[in-house]
């Protein structure tokens, strides 16, 4: 766009004027990019870009895709370095996931690289798009369908949520799942949207200094639950409880991932702890002490790795 303008009206001198023009062009480019995600052409217009002269030009999707050809090449380069046998899902993050040529490239070029060894393997794709550039919040939609991966078969990708829709749709889904009407089984046709009523992972708890893992909630168990359990306290331990998450049903091994840690106050010489594990209707798990007169269990921190 800048080259087109300067070919007609002369070069914009370096300095404040050129920097101002560049910023205005970038803002309009972002707008046109969004339009071309849904349309095949758009008008690129900036009024009084320099010395009172306007810039107006038609931009086609084909021209835009040519300009971002380096981006699709990076996708191919990355795909060529992957061991596809280890791939369990694909996640598209950010505004680039809206570009049709990027989605098409993933479905065709990358899809053809899948190995026949992946027959009968199942892929659950998900699309995660930040709510806005100023918030570190991601709204994630899981693709409901499961896709059998066969050699040479395309990978179906769909965009279910974008940055503009995330706040409103996220609030609507949350409200729907909390609605009494949605939970009333006598009202036919109503169901929980997207969210499931059961855990899809297994959760266990362990005390620092001990190899033991104690089951809190198993994959397939209802989200809302109330469980009492007794956890032995190892001698010399600091009184740190960790909640672990595992993809394996009923798993109590040490390969699971730590997701929350709790600190025990006034542990004293206790040999075991009676705990209460609760799960709410959103799947959030919390720990507390069964007997608050003797100990207090409080959230310590979330593991970063």
From TrEMBL:
A GO cellular component annotated for this chain's UniProt record is: endoplasmic reticulum lumen
User: Which ranges does the record mark as transmembrane?
Assistant: none
User: Which keywords has UniProt assigned to this entry?
Assistant: ATP-binding, Chaperone, Nucleotide-binding, Signal
Q: Which InterPro entries match?
A: ATPase_NBD (IPR043129), Heat_shock_70_CS (IPR018181), Hsp_70_fam (IPR013126)
Q: Does the keyword Metal-binding apply?
A: no
**Gene Ontology terms, MF aspect:** ATP binding; ATP-dependent protein folding chaperone
Indicate where this protein is primarily found: endoplasmic reticulum
Key word Nucleotide-binding present? yes
GO:BP terms for this protein?
endoplasmic reticulum unfolded protein response
Q: Where does it reside?
A: Endoplasmic reticulum lumen
Cite the PANTHER family for this sequence. HSC70CB, ISOFORM G-RELATED, HYPOXIA UP-REGULATED PROTEIN 1
Give the protein name, as stated in the record. Answer: 70-kilodalton heat shock protein
Q: Which organism is it from?
A: Perkinsus olseni (Perkinsus atlanticus)
Traced from the root, the source organism's taxonomic lineage reads: Eukaryota, Sar, Alveolata, Perkinsozoa, Perkinsea
